[in-house]
Amino acid sequence: MTYHRPVLAQAAVEALITDPAGVYVDATFGGGGHSRLILARLHPHGHLIGIDRDPDAPFSAISDPRFTPLRANFRDLKALVERLGFSTITGLLADLGVSSHQLDTPQRGFSYRVQAPLDLRMDPTTGLPAYQWIPLQSEETLATILRNHGDLPRAKRLARILLLKRPQTTTDLAAILQSVYGPKAPGYRAQVFQALRIAINDELNALKALLEAATDLIRPHGRLVILTYHSGEARLLKPLYQKPIREDPLYGQHQYAWKLICKKHPSSEEIQENPRSRSATLWVLEKLSL
For helices 203-217 and 231-242, what crossing angle results, to 10°? Predict the structure, then answer.
């Protein structure tokens, strides 16, 4: 079984590489699909840092002196890069989706299709699994998470029943959704799993830290290439190129750290071959000279 099929892989890597002798970061190594394509485009003096917090990520699949694997959370990007002796990088790529391996491994608890413990952790060696985490939340907190991260109706009612029933397995959660949404439940399952996963893994705060570090580390004219899958991720990206970092008081001109090069969605052919790519958006930003 393929560990993971990366979305818009060729387009992402083509947009990323501006200097084949540069230093790049694949912040979400996954199965190594993007990393292999990046290495294929780098010169002998180029370098790639691969980061993934999932203990299952197969770093050993790549043996290349230009590649440094790091088992870590990408929220610590700046410290990780500086520890390797680099003060700047040329570009960074991050695919923010869940890997096929995570979805297809029942014991990880990412999928409602198979009964398994309701876990949802990107790194199952740290933090609490979802079935232990849910009872520790307040009804208000859970309802806010379900609304903000899943755009879910009846969020307060769902939160109340989650705290009452305390689901232990993926099928327990699916049954709760059936009781709340009735015939419409199948349409909301992915959103509920997504909302809980984002909160349990603190994904949006990690992304915010990654973007701040990338802004400090990436050289002028270097690229930030991000694959997002929901509106919360997009909301963190947009201020990078929409919000000025300073204004010239004399002429009223705004100065920005980034400019948006392009946004791209998978083709109908790619979606047909890989239905999990349907919600993906590829963002390509270029660092401006300040």
Answer: 30
Collect all residues with Cβ–Cβ distance below 8 Å to 12 and sequence separation of at least 6: 6, 34, 93, 95, 225, 227, 282
Q: What is the CA radius of gyration of the chain?
A: 20
Contact 113, 18 (CB under 8 A): no
Examine the pLDDT at 248 and tell me if it is beyond 70: no
User: What is the spatial distance between Cα 201 and Cα 123, in angstroms, rounded to a whole number?
Assistant: 8
pLDDT exceeds cutoff 80 at 252: no
pLDDT class of 172 with cuts at 50, 70, 90: very high
Q: Beta-strand (E) ranges in the chain?
A: 23-26, 47-52, 67-71, 89-95, 218-228, 246-247, 254-255, 258-264, 281-287
| Spatial distance between the Cα atoms of 105 and 235, rounded to a whole number of angstroms | 30
Q: Which residues are registered as beta bridge partners of 43?
A: none
Query: What predicted TM-score, i.e. pTM, was given to this entire model?
Result: 0.91
Specify the residue for token string 């603190």: 202
Residue 1 has pLDDT above 50, yes or no: no
d(CA 188, CA 166): 19
DSSP letter for 262, please. E
Burial of 212 (0-12, 13-18, 19+ CB in 10 A): middle
Domains of the chain: 9-100+203-287 (3.40.50.150), 124-200 (no CATH)
| Count of helices and strands (H, E) across the chain | 12, 9
Residue 72 in tokens? 């870590």
* Cα dihedral 211→216→218→222 (10° resolution): 80
CA dist 23 and 29 (Å) reads: 15
Nearest to 119 by CA among 137, 107, 135: 107
